[in-house]
Design a protein that fits this description.
Length: 409
């Protein structure tokens, strides 16, 4: 459902004399109890949260209201895939270094902080991140004669070459079970590891001139040709069921994916899934958001104070405990509440410590161009699915290049 504007959606004085602030989020940020806590400590503030179930309608609403010049919340959450579009409209957002409270230097991981800056202006306070690890079915690897403990599998997942080579070994003995869920899910994880992606920093489309993209394509489609993919479109009903039925053995696994796996695989598969900090070719990040304060806000300074408070390490740890959103704050990554947290579904693994270590492996966030999210979701993911459905890899690549040019215009 689209966020709807109300008479007070851009903030203002509530009838009881309190300053009303609105915050628009999507999915689960873990802020429900935090907002109550903030109100209790600030008797002059009343907060209304407007939350949508998915990110796409939230961002569609955000850009529609930006174009209209009114109707936005005081604080608008932005997912990393849409951040470049916000940065291209940086003039419509407040510089948080200018209007926000002074925050401790080095609060965020440097790559997280840098990704939300434009011409020296800080457009968004970082919330969560999605450091990458690898999830896998221990029982399925064991049946195929492959190692299955989190330490023993590290050699399988050391590089993409070793990952796909292990896939060949698995397929030979798996009895029809696939190695991974979806070509696009693997391709996207590989792609996110590169410093330069679909666009360079001048927003020029570089798909044809960036050899890393074609190399990833060749590796993934080659694995598809060898039967390694379950050919399941991510987030489809068939993909959801695939977790429960054991249709594939491995899953590229940002921190937020643990919750997805547990929900879709169900209690009957508890203990069968494991996660290891080994990830092909090192670390990577997939996901994460920011809190922005549009210039439409009538109470920008108070909105920035709330946004700064929500993204402080102490509050992000509380959000992690509430909804599992993995913090991007340096102090939070060393907090015992995070490091000592374990996940029973994944064999009581200390998931907090594991993903904290993975986050430290990321050296820079890939620059996302204006239509980066569309290229990922509607161009390359669709092209890879067509390969899984029988289209030749070369023809699908040509189609992807053609469609990319249209989307980037």
């Amino acid at each position: 459902m689209l966020l709807t504007a109300t008479a007070c959606s851009s903030g203002g004085a509530a009838q009881d004399g309190k300053t009303e602030l609105t915050i628009a989020t999507f999915n689960e940020f873990g802020y429900e109890e935090l907002l109550k806590e903030y109100e209790a400590a600030h008797s002059d503030v009343k907060i209304t949260q407007r939350k949508t179930g998915q990110g796409e309608p939230h961002h569609k609403n955000l850009f529609t209201k930006l174009g209209a010049g009114s109707g936005l919340a005081d604080i608008e959450a932005v997912e990393e895939g849409f951040l470049s579009q916000v940065l291209s409209k940086a003039g419509q957002f407040n510089d948080l270094k200018e209007i926000g409270p002074q925050v401790e230097e080095g609060r965020w991981l440097k790559w997280k902080y840098d990704s939300a800056t434009k011409d020296g202006k800080l457009i968004g306070y970082g919330t969560d991140i999605g450091p990458l690890a690898m999830c896998y079915r221990k029982d399925l690897l064991e049946k195929a004669g492959l190692p299955s403990s989190p330490d023993a599998v590290k050699s399988l997942f050391a590089t993409w070459d070793s990952y796909f080579a292990a896939g060949d070994q698995f397929i030979a003995k798996s009895g029809g079970v696939a190695w991974f869920d979806s070509a696009a899910q693997v391709f996207n994880a590989m792609h996110n590891q590169h410093e330069v992606g679909y666009f360079d920093k001048s927003d020029k489309l570089v798909v044809e001139t960036n050899p890393a993209i074609k190399a990833d394509w060749t590796a993934v489609t080659g694995a598809v040709a060898k039967g390694q993919s379950a050919k399941l479109a991510a987030w489809s009903n068939e993909w959801n069921t695939g977790f429960k039925n054991g249709a594939f053995a491995t899953k590229t696994c940002p921190s937020w994916m643990l919750g997805v796996i547990e929900k879709q695989a169900g209690p009957e598969n508890a203990g069968k899934w494991a996660v290891t900090e080994a990830f092909p070719n090192g670390g990577g990040n997939w996901g994460g958001s920011f809190l922005t304060v549009p210039k439409q806000s009538k109470n920008a300074k108070k909105a920035a104070e709330l946004a700064a408070w929500l993204t402080a390490p102490e509050q992000q740890i509380k959000a992690f405990k509430s909804k599992g959103t993995f913090p991007s704050q340096v102090k939070a990554l060393t907090d015992p509440a995070l490091l000592d947290s374990s996940n029973a579904y994944f064999g009581d693994i200390k998931a907090g410590a594991l993903f904290a270590a993975q986050a430290q492996k990321v050296t820079a966030a890939q620059y996302k161009g204006p239509t980066d999210g569309q290229l990922q979701d509607t161009v390359f993911s669709a092209a890879l699915l067509s390969v899984e459905q029988g289209k030749g890899a070369d023809d699908a690549w040509k189609t992807a290049l053609s469609e990319a040019q249209k989307v980037a215009k």
